[in-house]
Write a structure and sequence with these properties.
The complex is a heterotrimer. Chain A is mostly helical. Chain A is 67% helix and 3% strand. A two-stranded antiparallel ribbon of chain A has the order 1-2. In chain A, α1 packs across α9, α5 packs across α6 and α6 packs across α8. The N and C termini of chain A lie far apart (55 Å). Chain B has a two-stranded parallel sheet with strand order 1-6. In chain B, strands 2-3 form a two-stranded antiparallel ribbon. In chain B, strands 4-5 form a two-stranded antiparallel ribbon. Chain B is mainly alpha-helical. Chain B is built from 16 helices and six strands. Chain C is an alpha/beta fold. Chain C has nine helices and ten strands. In chain C, α2 runs parallel beside α5. Chains in contact: A-B, A-C, B-C. At the A-B interface, α4, α9 and α11 of A face α4, α5, α10, α11 and α13 of B.
Chain lengths: 320, 386, 237
């Protein structure tokens, strides 16, 4: 038996080994989900300096299309995801070209307001097309039955196990990060993309089609978002027209913690946000679990106080 | 002599006459609502006015200091809950609750603004997005760092006061006073109260914008470094502007509580914030009239939209109103970037142009044409190389 | 000698503000041409207008191709390289990556590698710092990097905007010595905007003087050096 720690406000069960490990895996799986969204944020921010507030809704819409293809039309789930990812990338690039680019030279506010407008169109559009009730069954990229798990510690109560869904989320993050790094660090296209992120005007001078790189950022974000949406829907077991709104905020928070222009930062930030979200209500009895959003807001505030460029961000942040 | 557009010097008697016309239009709107529209709609107009006040607050930060806040729903909610709780549970008179509502909004605005505004860029929008999503959760929470908010705010059930003839247990009335004209209903009186408060806030805000503080803000929005060099300290100004903006929106929220009599946590979510932004953009960013128009549209547009049988969409309901906002936002950004007010100004400028008081004619000729200046430069250049 | 760049009646500006008013100039093959002028005369705008980075009217002809109306990212492919004022390196890329980016329009991979090595030979400091981020280099090193980066596209015409700005005198002399080598040994045509007129005229074949957006004087470097106005205004004696 573990010693009972009687500190007021602290949940002593938190320190039970298997419970702690279970919390940790949940935290890291949630965190990986946020890392996926943070990656989409970073892809757009790096080159354009914008936050796309419609990013979550774009992912939500993509996930509904995956639903239509995989569940209604009976397509293989991964084939459906590939189709939707390609489609999302094309649409993402098109949105950048048609809607965002003309606004670049106007005020800073115009692109922000435009993405808020997109948020509403996609949100209301999904509600109109697919209704406001959650959809079932949810497309399942990974085996998601109750017994689809790896038991690790069964000698204690509660057991400690890792679900295939959680493993799937981690695998997705790892694969995406490796692919993105290969793309950005090993290809000419990636070099051009990073050059635009570093200095758009000099990129024009050396002959890089800068506008196409901005479209590439949106395309990558939309593609990653489509994968993220499908995986998040299964992981959180919900698919309705609102399921991505809060997730996007956690993604923003993760990107903020990690530094808005760093891929590594997005991943580490996502995991940290997941840990804060899961651990604070589990550890402190005076923090309700419905307050995870508030905790994350506090994390953003603390990061802004202590290290405004984020953990891995470049020091382009200007204080005033 | 050319007849149109009519050129009117500011502060001249003709300009005063036009201003008087504007004042009359405001009175006209008031009498229209009180005397013409049906009693039920008066409350909706009152709510529209409270939304206008909220957007007026947002305009201080978005229009005049150039940063976007997605969290003004929370300030609106703070004001509404403050007024609601003080009236329903503590028996305060309505007007006494407004300073408290405003002060609370100001404090929360400052706390949020200090870290977010020290850094240039999009951090304010990020933090305020979090605020918008967190506010309903906090209101519903029964253990927020040990505080049981739900027991104070009524949790998910929300809170109710009666502003009508029926009195609550604490005896709150908002019935017309004895000196009110015959035939005034409670709704007329609520509208009158809210309307007067709104007019006062609009006048105060427009004075604030024209004061040195306001000019400092605008200077900073347009060129931060330049403003800083001229002695405008960006961080303090921005935090002050943000907190003031929260104050105005909170007072709007207090009025909203009076007008709607029922509030719940989800009245003050992200949707509400984006409505404010939509209202501001549609009405006209960085104008005084813009928020007024925006508030009215935000309240009535969905209502009108739900009446219409749309071509592909059919009857709209619930979240589908969002599509409408979304499309209007996109269309406005592309085709009328200044919003309705700029549209109106453009049409007006075909008929009347207001110009600052003109200096004497000979000064204009000496100062104006660029060619004169260039000619003189060329003259000196030629002399130098000959 | 054949004309490489022919600028005719060039107007340019930013929105409603017109900066250049009917600029005429030309640069011949393998020449070094300097553009002199006071602050605000429109020197930088001239270079930016040649590269189509500002709104412009008139004609800019590069070896028979009309540039006005082209997109700015097409310039590198036509053999124009531009070292903008304030360096214009890519601070978050390494020195070596900066050089690779400079060769963006080229397809010959093997040649690019040998050109990078040649850059290191030309600017040994860069070779020592090849894996460092460009943002961590000193001002002089960044200017060298910007020039090396521009040369990576194997330009026929190199536009240099205030290359001496903010650099120590010794560094400036080294840099201009390099420019001279580039021109004489590799035949790269140079068009230099420079406030340090003395130094610029040393390596220049011809020069123009720009005032208030118009070319007010032109001639050989020696002629301009002898002009009293130029002497008073730019040479300081």
């Amino acid at each position: 038996m573990s010693a009972v720690l009687a500190i007021p406000g602290i949940e002593h069960n938190f320190f039970t080994l298997t419970l702690f490990l279970q919390n940790l895996t949940n935290a890291l799986a949630n965190g990986a989900v946020y890392a996926l969204m943070a990656l989409t944020v970073v892809m757009i921010y790096k080159t354009t300096g914008h936050l796309n507030f419609a990013q979550g809704e774009m992912a939500m819409f993509s996930t509904f299309i995956v639903y239509v293809l995989a569940i209604e039309q009976g397509l293989n789930i991964w084939l459906a995801i590939v189709i939707v990812v390609v489609g999302s990338m094309v649409l993402g690039a098109a949105i950048e070209r048609v809607l965002i680019q003309p606004l670049e030279s106007r005020s800073v506010l115009a692109p922000v307001i435009l993405t808020l407008g997109l948020f509403f169109i996609l949100n209301g559009g999904a509600a109109t097309i697919w209704g406001t009730q959650p959809k079932t069954p949810i497309p399942a990229p990974f085996p998601g039955h109750l017994d689809d798990k790896v038991d690790i510690i069964t000698s204690r109560v509660p057991h400690f196990f890792v679900t295939y869904k959680a493993l799937g989320v981690w695998a997705t993050v790892i694969v995406l990060v490796v692919l993105l790094n290969l793309l950005l660090k090993r290809t000419k296209l990636g070099l051009a993309y990073r050059a635009v992120a570093a200095n758009a005007e000099s990129s024009l001078i050396v002959g890089i089609p800068v506008k196409r790189m901005l479209m590439l950022g949106w395309a990558l974000a939309a593609g990653i978002g489509a994968i993220a949406g499908a995986i998040i829907a299964q992981y959180r077991n919900v698919l309705d027209f609102n399921f991505m709104a809060a997730v996007l905020l956690f993604g923003f928070a993760a990107a903020c913690v990690g530094g808005f222009d760093s891929i590594m930062g997005a991943v580490v930030g996502g995991l940290l946000v997941g840990v804060v979200e899961t651990f604070t209500p589990a550890l402190f009895t005076f923090v309700g679990s419905e307050l995870s959003l508030v905790m994350v807001l506090l994390v953003i505030l603390i990061v802004l106080y202590v290290r405004p460029q984020g953990l891995f961000g470049s020091k382009r942040v200007e204080r005033v | 002599m050319k007849s149109l557009p009519l050129v009117v010097e500011r502060k001249s008697p003709t300009h005063r006459a036009f201003q008087l016309l504007g004042v009359l239009a405001v009175f006209g709107f008031y009498f229209y609502v009180v005397n013409v529209v049906e009693n039920f709609s008066a409350i909706r107009w009152a709510i529209a006015v409270t939304l206008s006040v909220a957007i007026l607050g947002l305009n201080i930060v978005t229009g005049y200091s150039g940063q976007i806040s997605i969290g003004h729903s929370a300030f609106f909610g703070i004001g509404a809950y403050t007024t609601m709780i003080l009236i329903a549970d503590h028996g305060w008179p309505f007007l006494a609750t407004l300073p408290v509502a405003g002060a609370l909004g100001f404090i929360v605005g400052a706390v949020i603004g200090i870290p977010a505004l020290r850094i240039r860029g999009l951090y304010l929008s990020l933090i305020t997005l979090g605020l918008a999503l967190a506010f309903p959760a906090i209101v519903k929470s029964d253990s927020f760092f040990g505080i049981n908010f739900a027991s104070i705010t009524g949790g998910s059930n929300g809170k109710v006061i009666s502003s009508g003839e029926v009195t609550t247990t604490r005896g709150f009335h908002w019935n017309p006073p004895s000196w009110a004209p015959d035939g005034w209903t409670t709704n007329d009186w609520v509208f009158t109260t809210v309307f007067v408060i709104a007019v006062v806030l609009f006048v105060l805000t427009s004075n604030l914008i024209r004061s040195s503080v306001g000019r400092g803000l605008i200077a900073m929005r347009d060129n931060e470094t330049g403003a800083a060099v001229s002695g405008v300290y960006p961080a303090q100004y921005k935090v002050l502007a943000f907190a003031t903006s929260a104050l105005v929106t909170s007072i709007g929220g207090g009025c909203f509580a009076l007008a709607s009599t029922t509030i719940g946590p989800d009245t003050f979510g992200l949707q509400r914030s984006i409505e404010f932004i939509a209202g501001l953009v549609i009405g006209g960013v960085a104008t005084i009239l813009g928020p007024a128009i925006g508030g009215v549209l935000v309240e009535w547009l969905p209502y009108w939209a739900f009446e219409v049988n749309w071509p592909i969409l059919g009857k709209l309901e619930g979240p589908q109103a969002g599509i409408l906002y979304g499309f209007i936002l996109v269309l406005i950004i592309f085709f009328m970037p200044g919003g309705i007010v700029y549209g109106i100004r453009q049409i007006r400028s075909k008929f009347v142009v207001f110009v600052p008081r003109l200096p004497a004619p000979q000064e204009i000729y000496a100062a104006r044409p660029a060619d004169v200046a260039i000619a003189s430069v060329q003259q000196t250049t030629r002399e130098r190389y000959q | 000698m054949t004309t490489m760049l022919q600028v005719t009646a060039l107007d340019a500006g930013y929105g409603p503000i017109q900066v250049l008013r009917g600029v005429d100039l030309h640069v011949d093959e393998a020449e070094v041409v300097v553009l002199l002028g006071a602050n605000g005369a429109g020197k930088t705008t001239t270079i930016r207008a040649i590269c189509q980075m500002v709104d412009s009217k008139g004609s800019v002809n590069m070896c028979g191709a009309e540039l006005v109306g082209m997109r700015p990212e097409k310039m590198a492919g036509l053999g124009i390289a531009h070292v903008p004022q304030g360096r214009g390196t890519f601070p978050e890329l390494t020195v070596e990556e900066n050089l690779h980016v400079g060769a963006y329009v080229r397809k010959d991979r093997a040649q690019i590698r040998s050109d990078i090595d040649r850059s290191y030979a030309l600017f040994p400091r860069l070779g020592e710092r090849r894996m460092q981020l460009a943002g961590s280099l000193s001002g002089g090193e960044q200017q060298m990097l910007a020039v090396a980066r521009a040369l990576m596209s194997r330009p026929r015409l190199l536009l240099l905007d205030e290359p001496s700005l903010g650099l120590a005198p010794l560094v400036i002399q080294g840099l201009f010595a390099r420019f001279n080598e580039l021109n004489e040994e590799e035949g790269v045509t140079l068009f230099i905007v420079e406030q340090n007129a003395n130094l610029a005229l040393d390596i220049a074949d011809r020069a123009y003087v720009l005032e208030a957006g118009r070319i007010v004087l032109s001639g050989s470097a020696a002629e301009l050096r002898a002009n009293d106005g130029v002497r008073r205004a730019y040479l300081g004696f």
